[in-house]
Amino acid sequence: MTSRAGRVATAGAAVGVTSAVASGAGSLAAAAYFARRVLTPDRQRPDDVVVRAAGAHTVTLTATPQTMVPGRYGLWIDNGFGHVRIGDVVDLDQGSATVERELLAVDRGYLAPGTARWNAYFHGAPPDVTIGARTEHVTYAGELGPMPAWVVRPDGARPGVGERWAVLVHGRGARREETIRAMPPLLEQGWTCLVPSYRNDEGVPSGPDGRYALGLSEWRDIEAAIDHAVDHGAQEVLLAGWSMGGAIVLQLLDRSPLSELVSRVVLDAPVIDWGDVLAHHAHAHRLPRHVGSLARTMMNQRWGHRLVGVGESVDLAKTDWVSRADELHHGILLIHSAADDFVPIGPSRALAQARPDLVQFHEWEVAHHCTEWNTEPDRWERLVREFAAW
Q1: Arithmetic mean of pLDDT, 290-313
Q2: 320 and 178 in one domain?
Q3: CB 194 within 8 A of CB 150
Q4: Which residues, including other chains, have CB under 8 Å from residue 240's CB and lie 6 or more apart?
Q5: Does 63 have pLDDT greater than 50?
Q6: What backbone phi and psi angles, to 5 degrees, belong to 346?
Q7: Contact between 141 and 213 (Cβ < 8 Å)
Q8: Would the pTM count as exceeding 0.85?
Q9: CA 309, CA 307: separation in Å to the nearest integer?
Q10: Are residues 235 and 165 in the same domain?
Q11: Which UniProt keywords apply (predicted)?
Q12: How many CA atoms lie within 13 A of 307 on its CB side?
């Protein structure tokens, strides 16, 4: 659940249902609608930023909570065909409700006044383009069919050589570019980076029902990616996951025999407990508590599957790693921001408190969801570099 479109779609779950929840049938319909919005991939990614002016060194945007946050970000322009990278806030004009930010680079396209789409990944192309790292575009055999992936090796490493592989898992509705921020510190420590796809990503096979399982089935695609790494020499694996990617990683650690190869785990703004995330969004959009609880039940119980649109149970109890903390066995670097308004930080704090023997927890203050690196890149990369070195 990393994309801006995903946040808008989930927020939309509250629209049009409030007046219906007074009746039992209305509650059922509202719960089904809410559940579907959580589980359905976001096929449309509309523009969500207005470019007011563009100069040689700065760009002026309409001020919104996301455009005013410090750090480095990107903008998709020209309906996604173009991309620019922007830096810190230069000026905030409250009178005109605009924010002026540094213009770092126009990667492609023509930047002009109009609409654009916010890119929290900062990077807007594969690693060979964005960080100058030689990138192999490979395909591995997933459970549902061929899955594209990137392989980036440390400087001097040859294809087929390298025992330490880092498998980087993006979040819900996100793109593989989300993971590029982790490559420099990992490559520096000698890790070959593999960035896989998973079911329901754009341009890859969908799951049988076309719905997300919130990590409960997607982990099998990441297991297949690790199998690909093993076939190419991997003997030790670092797993990293952002948002729902973190939930996927945790399911793999629990369910896959290949977890024996995993020596360490990096989680950035992870979903530690999907029940907590759904309760947060239901409350934020003023859905009665029983509607959120009913949505959760419908995801899990067979009688609700047709209404929700899933072919297999989505049991959120299996995603509660605070309750399941004793079942974890891998060292974890856990990074999360107190200002995350999409995946609340509470479960991350609770997991760190429950398993201080395994979890190294580092809290950010102002970053929005999955943008800790954007606001403090030096700190983020130092933590990952040190964690990857031991």
Answers
A1: 92
A2: yes
A3: yes
A4: 166, 167, 168, 169, 179, 182, 249, 265, 266, 267, 268
A5: yes
A6: -50, -55
A7: no
A8: yes
A9: 6
A10: yes
A11: Hydrolase, Signal
A12: 21
User: Where do we find the tokens 């903008």?
Assistant: 75
Domain with 83, as residue range(s), is: 49-119
At position 16, the amino acid (one-letter code) is G
For 60, 61, 104, 114, 390, the CA distances from 52, given in Å and listed in that order, are 5, 5, 17, 7, 47
d(CA 87, CA 105): 9
DSSP state of 269: S
Residues linked to residue 49 through DSSP beta bridges, in sequence order: 116
Is the same domain home to 84 and 165?
Answer: no
Nearest in space to 224 (alpha carbons), one of 243, 244, 241, 199: 199
Shared domain for 93 and 134, answered yes or no, is no
Residue keyed to tokens 């785990």: 265
The region of weakest confidence among 135-144, 163-172, 281-290, 353-362 is 281-290
Q: Which residue has the tokens 């779950």?
A: 13
Give the burial class of 255: count Cβ atoms within 10 A of its Cβ; 0-12 exposed, 13-18 middle, 19 or more buried: middle
Helix (H/G/I), strand (E/B), else coil: 276 = helix
CATH number of the domain at 140, please.
3.40.50.1820
Which token pair is 309?
């649109």
pLDDT at 161 over 60: no
Residue 301 and residue 28 in contact, taking contact as beta carbons nearer than 8 Å:
no
